[in-house]
Input
Amino acid sequence: MPFTTSFTVTQGATCSQFQVNDTSDYSTEGTGTFANRKLTIQKSDGSYLVHNSITYNQYVWPFGTNTITITGLDQDYAYKVTFTHTSNAPQPGSIYTKEASAVLKCFTLSGFYTFSNKMAVNQSLEKDYKYVKDVMRLFIEQESATKAGTDGDFAASQACLDRAKNIIDNLTIGY
Output
């Protein structure tokens, strides 16, 4: 049975963190059959994520732990994540590299819910056209970021998340 590299990227307990989880099934090829496994996390500007003095550009992820937690995020990001196994004895039909877009949108969704809640509490805000428009733009930007990420365009996804941050930073009552 062939080996398939598999991983997930999930938002953490707070918006300021996320985890990369190795979900590969090592029953077909055990961890001892690999020379290494490498993780690359690329930003939309082409640079690589740096966290705790580690640059995630072909970072050799030691076996023994299957989760890496990144903390300290100050806004939402879209990343291209590549996870590669280097097998000492490659098996036919195995997939040793997987790439995916990871769209983290916790700050955007929190802003949307916060500002929507303000409308629920203060219903006169529903008559404030600019306020309602900006709240809806937040929803549209997070949906667009998700779609761009699904399409593999993490640069466009990041542009949506940047616009959402700008809306959140500038959305005030009583324009």
About this structure: The longest strand covers residues 78-87. DSSP finds three helices and nine strands in the chain. The chain has two domains: 7-103, 106-170. The chain has a mean pLDDT of 93.
